[in-house]
C-alpha cells in the first residue's frame, strides 16, 4: 500500500512534556495524524492524534511575540517567541494540550487551516480513540549543601540554589498506568449500558437511588433536560462500608484476578467486575450488597468520603483506606463511589445539585479522605472532580485528610529531605484552572461552581496550604514510627532522622528540625568521624535553623565549625565552601555588620563564577545576596545590576513560576522603590506576588513580605486604599503561622502604623509602633537598625501631635544607633537629621534646623541623587525653615526645587506635592505676586481633603 502523502509540513516549536523545554521539531501532517521529527527525514519523536481532537483559537502571549527566525530549541520560559495554536487531543482517558508555535502569523494560519480540516474529516471516526500513556515526571538532582537563604530587611525573602535536569526522552510511559488502563467498553457493554460520568475519573458526587420529590416533579428548566434519576440525600446512596468489607473485597478480587489484581485500576475493576455483576438489574452495586445478609452488616451511613482518581490501582485506594481506618478513624464507614453509584446510567444532575446538595452531603459525613498517588505528580491535582471534592470539603469545613500510600512515604520523605524543591514543584503544578475531566460538561459544571464560590485563586491557595500541612504530617508520623522501631541499623536510623529534620525545616518547623538534627549527629560523628563531610552538613543545616529562629550567635558558631571542615576537605575555592560563606554573610547582615557581610557575599560570587562546573542557579543566588547587601549600604546602582543578573538567570534556568524568580522580582522592587521609581517597583512586586502565591500560597511569611512591600509602596505613592488592602492581606497571612515575637508581624505593624499616621490616626499608630518596639527590643536589642527605625517613627508621631521635645528625645536615640550601625553618610542617617530639623523648626529654632537640613541634604544628594523624592522633601523642609525666618526669596527657590522633583516622580495629586503647592502660594503672597499665589492655591485645592504632609512635616518612616 502506498504511503500517504503529507498534507502539510514544516518547522514548529513545541513544549517537551518531560523536559520542560521549548524544542524545534519538524511536523508532518498525514491524514488524521500529526507526527513530529527532530529534522526532515529524521526519526519520529512522537505523534499527536487528531481524531476526536480540537484545534483551539489562535493565541499570542503578550510581550513574548517576535517574528524573526525559527526558535532554536534553547530553553526560553514561559513561552518562546512566535505565533501559537493549541491542539487538545485524547490522552489516556483525558485530554492533553499541545502548544505549538510558528514564527510568522502566515505560517500559523496555514497550519490552523490544515489541522482544522483534518479534525473535521475525523468527525465520523471512532469517538473514543485508543488512549496513549502519559509522560512520567522527571526528577531533579540536588546538591547536598545549598547556598543560604537570604533575609531582606524590609520583608522576608529567601533564596536557594537550584539544579535542574531535563529528561532525555519525550513521551516516556507512565509508570503508574497499567497496560489496560482506560480500555474501551466491549461492544456488548456499549450497546446495553452507558458508564457513569465518573467511570474514568475521580470520585463523583453522591448519586442517589431513583427517588423524586413529588413537589418538584413539574419543575423543569427550559434549557435543561430533566435528569433520569433525581438525587436523594438519604438511603442507600449515602451508605458507607467498613474495614471488614474492604478486607473481604480485596481478598475476593485477589482470588478473582490473581496477580493481575495488583495492577488493575479502579476503571478496570468497574468494567471487568462491577458492571458485569450488576448488568442484569442495571443497578448500583450497593443494591445487590445490602440485599445480601452476609454483606448488609458491613453498611451504615457514611462517615468518610473517599476522593480518589480512577487511574490509581484499586488496591492502592483500598490499602490507603484500611491504613486510615486502623490508625486515624477506627470504626469509620467509607463512601467509595464505585459502590453506591449506578455505573450503567449517567445521571444528568442539575448544576444546583452539585453546588448545594453535594456540599451538604460531604458536610453530613464530616470527613474527606483524599488518596494521593503518585506523590511526585499527584493525579488528584490534575483531575477536576478531585479538586471539586477538595473545594467542597474546605467550604463545608470538614476534616480533610490527605494521605499517601504507605509504600511511597519513605521515598517522599527522602526526596523532601534532600531537596524541598521536589515538593515545591508539586505545589507549582496545582492550578485548578488546568484540571481536566473525562466529560467536558463535568468540567464546565465544576468550573462554574468554583467561580461562584471560592474562586480559582482562593481554591489554589487553600489546596496548597492543605498540601503543605500534609507534607508536615507525613514527616511527623514517620518520625514517630521510627522512634518506636528497634530493629534497625544505627546509621539507617540517623539518616532517617536527618531526612525528617530536613523536611521539618523546609516548612518552617525549626525547633523540631534542630531536635532531629541533634538525634542524628552523634551517630554520624561516631561512625564517620568528627571532621567528616556529612558532619559539616549537619552543622550547616542546624545553623540555618538557628538563624531562622534569630539565634545568630549559635548560627555563627555552627557555620564556622562547618566551614573549617569544608575548607580542610575541599579547599577555599569550592562551591560547598562558598555556601558556608553565603550563610555567614547572612548572619553578618542580620547583626548589622554590613562590611563583613559584603566581603563574604563577594567571596561567594567569585567562587561561583570561577567554578569549572558553573552552577547558574548558584550564580543567581550569589548575585541576589550581594545585591541586597549593597542595597542596605546604599549602593543602589550596583545592587540593581546584581539583582537584574539574578533575575535573568532565574528566568532561563527555572522559569517564571519558581521561588527564586519571585525573590529576584521582590528585591528589584525594593531597590527601585528606594531609588524613588515607585511605579516600576509596584510592577516588580506584583510579579513577585503572583509567583509566591502560585508556589507557596497566601498563608506564608514570604508571601506576606511581598504584600507588605507592595502596601508600603502604595502608601508612599499616596494610594492609601490599595495600601490598606495589601497591609490587611499581609497581616492576615501571618496570623496563623508565626510565633510570638517573630519579626515579620512587627514589620507589618510598623508599616501599618505609618499609614495610620498619614491618615491622622495617631493613637492607633503609636500603639502599633510600641508593639513593634517591644518585639525589636526582645529579639534584636537596643543597638539595631530596626529599633532605630521604630524610635524615629514614634518620634514623628509626637512631632505631628505637637510634642516636639518628646520627638527630639526619640530622634536622638535613633540617630545614636544609626551613626553606630550605618555611619554618617547613609540615607537612613539623613532621615533622622531631617526629622530632628523639622522638630526644631516647629519650636522656632530655625537656625539649628537649617544646620540639620544641610547635613540631610548632603547625604541625600550623595546617596539618592538630585531627582529622588526624599531629596525633594529636604528642599521643601529647608524652604519651610526659611519661610519661618521670613527669607521669602530663598523659601521660594527651595520650594521650586522641591516641585521640580515631586511633579515628575510622585505626580501633581500626591499629598507631598499638594502641600508644597500650598507653601508656594503663601510665599508668593508675601513676595507680592498674587497671580502666582492664586495659581498655586488652585493646584493645592485640587485635592479632596487637606494635605496630609505639609511642607514642614517630617519624613515619618524610612
UniProtKB/TrEMBL annotation:
Biased composition (Low complexity): 130-142
Residue ranges with Pro residues bias: 947-958
Pfam family, one: PH
Domain PH, residue spans: 5-120
The organism's place on the tree of life at top rank: Eukaryota
Listed CDD domains: PH
InterPro entries from the UniProt entry: PH-like_dom_sf, PH_domain, TPR-like_helical_dom_sf, TPR_rpt
Keyword terms, alphabetized: Repeat, TPR repeat
Region (Disordered): 130-161, 175-209, 932-958
Chain positions of TPR repeats: 536-569, 620-653, 662-695, 788-821
Name the record gives this protein: PH domain-containing protein
Protein source organism: Monosiga brevicollis
